[in-house]
């Protein structure tokens, strides 16, 4: 994620001097991902990660911070 964010920031700063298509190919990122990042749209992965984090926090709180990885996994899978 950090690499993509850095690539997008670089592309934003240099899009006047270089074509976005060329920079995207050189950095191995997609043009559509760059333009979605510009618009501020969260990706499907971001949305899924936010949902998972909400579930993790809920399980952590309801377990009184006592669940380990195996119990966490079974609780999230249920």
Number of helices: 5
N→C terminal distance: 29 Å
What class would the helix/strand composition place it in? Answer: mainly alpha
Order of helices and strands: HHHHH
Tell me roughly what share of residues is in helical segments.
over 70%
User: What integer value in Å does the Rg equal?
Assistant: 19 Å
How would a textbook summarize the main sheet?
none
Strand content: under 5%
* Overall pLDDT level: 89
How would you sum up the global shape? rod-shaped
Total strand count, please?
0
Low-confidence stretches: none
Question: Summed up, what is this model?
Answer:
With 78 residues, this protein is mostly helical.
Identify the notable features of this structure and list them briefly.
mainly alpha
Describe the overall structure.
Helix content is 74%, strand content 0%. The protein is mostly helical and 78 residues long. It is rod-shaped. The model has no long low-confidence stretch (mean pLDDT 89).
